[in-house]
Amino acid sequence: MKESFECGREDDKIQPNIWLPEGVLPGFQEACLDFFWLCREVVMDILRALEVGFDLTEGYLTKFHTQTDNQLRLLHYPSVPTESLEKDEIVRISAHSDYGSITLLFQDDIGGLEIEDPKKPGSFKPATPVPGSMIVNAGDCMARWSNDIIRSTVHRVRAPPNLQTKDGMTPERYSIPYFCSSNFDDVVDCLPGTFSDEKPKKYEPISGGEYFMKRLATAY
Ligand SMILES: O=C(O)CCC(=O)C(=O)O
Ligand SMILES: [Fe+2]
């Protein structure tokens, strides 16, 4: 159970941004867009680091992200009875991996975010909030691209561990994921060096947009 506000680049014709009426929350739109473009700089730096790590030519990954088909999501999980969260009667967010290449995730200090152990499917560990930190998750598109050398992170949000409250309520929680996707028009194929005769490609080439739409269709 959650509520969210989402925005992307201002010139996106397919999913245009919907802002609050003029005068409501002055500065909100500017703050969102400033943060959107700041996060873009950060993901581009991470992509450049991956180019080095994969021994790719400079710009190999960033040139797939020039259209900035990215999404900033402001999430609010309302306060709910802890027992309902523990019994899965109320779900904050169920286990999933993100679709795109990279997600930046900012969380407040409430906790409850959990990451699946890739070696033990079904076993989750808390991603304990660290003040001033940012989590970087790999998405399914990155897993595809890297022929599964980088695995996408399965994560969920449940009741924070060891929470003691007088009223039995889990406090509200805020988080901000920033989803970075490759250009919808460009075809993503396994990166050079990630496949060989012994380790063939696990995935067919697909355009960023087609992949995104396929994933949306299965999610809704
Ligand atoms: O709230 C969180 O920490 C995670 C949110 C998330 O995983 C998502 O929106 O995809
Ligand atoms: Fe997620």
Keywords, please?
220 residues; alpha+beta; Jelly Rolls; 5-stranded antiparallel beta sheet; 4-stranded antiparallel beta sheet; 24% strand; globular; binds fe (ii) ion; Iron_ascorbate_oxido_reductase
Question: How would you explain this protein's 3D organization?
Answer:
The chain is of the alpha+beta class. It contains 4 helices and 13 strands. The protein has one domain (3-219): Sandwich (Jelly Rolls), CATH 2.60.120.330. The strands form 4 sheets. A 5-stranded antiparallel β-sheet has the order 1-2-11-5-8. A hairpin with a 7-residue loop joins strand 6 and strand 7 (124-126). The longest helix has 26 residues, at 28-53. Fe (ii) ion is lined by residues 96, 98, 155, 177. Keywords: Iron, Metal-binding, Oxidoreductase.
Short description:
With 220 residues, this protein is α+β, with helices and mostly antiparallel strands. It has helices at 28-53, 82-86, 140-145, 208-219, and strands at residues 3-7, 71-77, 80-81, 93-96, 102-107, 113-116, 124-126, 135-138, 155-157, 169-170, 173-180, 187-188, 206-207. It is globular and about 60 Å long.
User: Can you give the mean pLDDT?
Assistant: 94
Radius of gyration: 19 Å
- Major beta-sheet overview: 5 strands, antiparallel
Domain tally: 1
Family: Belongs to the iron/ascorbate-dependent oxidoreductase family.
Organism: Dendrothele bispora (strain CBS 962.96)
GO molecular function, one term: oxidoreductase activity
Protein name: Clavaminate synthase-like protein
